[in-house]
Amino acid sequence: GDSVTQMEGPVTLSEEAFLTINCTYTATGYPSLFWYVQYPGEGLQLLLKATKADDKGSNKGFEATYRKETTSFHLEKGSVQVSDSAVYFCAQTKRGGSYIPTFGRGTSLIVHP
Amino acid sequence: DGGITQSPKYLFRKEGQNVTLSCEQNLNHDAMYWYRQDPGQGLRLIYYSQIVNDFQKGDIAEGYSVSREKKESFPLTVTSAQKNPTAFYLCASSLDRRSYEQYFGPGTRLTVT
Fold first, then answer.
1. N or C end of chain A: smaller count of CB under 10 Å?
2. Is the preceding peptide bond at A10 cis, omega within 30 degrees of 0?
3. How far is B96 from chain A, CA to nearest CA, in Å?
4. Do A68 and A53 contact (CB within 8 A), yes or no?
5. Chain B residues contacting A via beta carbons under 8 Å
6. Which of A9, A72, A96 shows the shortest CA–CA distance to B59?
7. Does A44 touch chain B (CB under 8 A)?
């Protein structure tokens, strides 16, 4: 079935370092792709999305580009802050045309001062 | 402010007892969802409801039950038949069944001993 694979964490960085969190998907067709963020003890919040190939989603300095040829949607940020420490989830719209997302396992990001 | 509330934030129960988790939204959303989150496993869909008085099983519905008598409320009952009920439970909503973006509540951490 359709699935989303994320790089395992935790990813540990120093403040102002460059961030990449890899995400690949397996859905056929043209799913919509998302990144959600979960801060400690909270629910998930939508960070950014892309609904068609070559779209770039961006928000709060984070970016991800929908790459159909590599079935990827990697999350990037040029300069991370301590406040970016959280768990990041990649997601795609679910199989069978349903609009319910399938989530990856999440990648924990820890940013040190 | 519009949003989703889940209560309580922490819940403790003895094995063999049923327990009901509350989820309320004032976003006027048609669709609501319950997810279970376990460390390293991402989010797994338990039940969802796309309209009042209707709901469908998700990927891991066994041992759970729901009701959707009102648009704003979607309570989840964890029954004694659920073999591993200790987890973090997240409720979410979306505008309607065709909306990609989900809005999450803060979650309830259930511990069963």
1. C
2. yes
3. 10
4. yes
5. 4, 6, 33, 40-43, 45, 48, 58, 90, 92, 94, 97-107
6. A96
7. yes
Residues in chain A: 113
Q: How many CB atoms are closer than 10 A to CB B41?
A: 12
> What residues does B25 pair with on adjacent strands?
B4
Burial environment of residue B11 by CB neighbours within 10 A (0 to 12, 13 to 18, 19 or more): middle
Render each residue's pLDDT in chain A as its tens digit; 113 residues.
678 999 888 999 999 999 999 999 987 778 889 999 999 888 999 999 998 899 999 999 999 999 999 999 999 999 999 999 999 999 998 645 667 888 999 999 999 99
What confidence score (pLDDT) does residue B86 get? 95
Sign of CA dihedral B87, A26, B61, B8: positive
Supply the DSSP string of A84-102, one letter for each residue. Answer: G-EEEEEEEEPGGG--PEE
CA distance B36 to B41: 9
Terminal C-alpha separation, chain A: 41
